[in-house]
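hey can u check if this looks right to u? its 239 residues, i copy pasted from the old doc so theres a chance i mangled smth
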Amino acid sequence: MSVDLETTVCDIALEHPQAVRVFESFGIDYCCGGGQSLEEACRQANVGIETVREALRRPADAADASGNWASASLEELTDHIVARHHAFVRRETARLAELLGKVKAKHNTNHPELDRLEELFRALASELKVHMMKEEQVLFPMIRQLEEASREEDADTAAFAGIMFPMERMISEHEDAGGALRQIRSLTGCFQASPDACPSFHALYQGLEEFERDLHQHIHLENNILFPSARRVAGLTEP
């Protein structure tokens, strides 16, 4: 894959879904911060531009290339987000909260940062619980209704102009979640457990890293694919 340095990371991820794994491996934000150029994203991630471009040039395997949702229907995409990503968040927030409590009880004396880590993660989990409920009960049904209405002859999608507010609210909450993830990554030293870490400590950090990776993909699907597609169907201008 050949990419220009001025191309945004969001556009690269949309055109080449396999690039998501590359961005994750270098800590490059392609969801909330997807509007920045590849050059700026590399600078912020403190990684060499040519190193990233070389990784992007490598052939993608079948698993990497299978996640192209840009051509999916709005219904298919919302169903996928709920079944794959919302389910993952619900399962992993419960598991990681329990594991975090266990690790904190054993290691808090030598690792006082676990107090702040627990505070950040529990707050994030609580916010995501409400956020997903609003999507499932309000926004996603509106998006499906919009798509259904657009198929009708003489469709009047202008009636769905009110969909902009909940989408913008979800984007704002995504930015808050992204900020919490960055704090967690910093607090854990990029998820690198200390030499005295027990297996549970290692499992916690591995789980938090996977949680970050999944939430980045989750936000990317909504911010960069689902919401722009819904705006186009409704005939609304991009914000």
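The chain has a mean pLDDT of 88.
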